[in-house]
Design a protein that fits this description.
2 domains; mainly alpha; 69% helix; HEAT repeat protein
Amino acid sequence: MDTEWFTSRLASTDRRSQWWAAVQLMNAGPESSVHLFRLLDICDGIDIDSDVSELEHWITFYAARASGRIVQSIGYDVGNQLHKRVFDWIERLALHRNPERAIGGIWGLADLGTPPAATVDLLVELTLTDTRRDPTGEHTARSVAFRMLARIDRTAAVRYADTDAGREFIANVRRWSEDNPERATGPNGILTEAGWLIAEIGEQ
């Protein structure tokens, strides 16, 4: 998908067009950085503290992830105001009181990676102190934060594995693996992602 395709859809006021552009930007590479300003402007136009539509929710989710990936592919520059704006947006979403809304920001932190070091600091903080749960009470923001921490800093993940967040995630990995072993070991499977952690913890 070329620049004109993204420009057209991001310029649209149609939420479905904006959502689909945000989804596709996740894998568009560093050349798509030209669209970051508009993508963030769209997010700024969504009042995440009020009731949002389903499409608006998914726009913020994929925008956080896409913007993180784009900046990571370029290389985060502490002196670049656009890069700082991306981090600030992802952080704001990750800290939102609504855990379902915050998940996109937490995933976005891992997509952004490190640098900046603040991504690891924030994921550690969420791992240790977060108390948000989804409406079912079964899933926690802290376990997602720990999962993202394990993606970008294995040493930190091992250090914090014996926390509520770490134990919750490890229990989820084992349950998901038992429920669908074939999927768990596939290219995007949970054991492919986190099997190293299970092995590491088992050795302790």
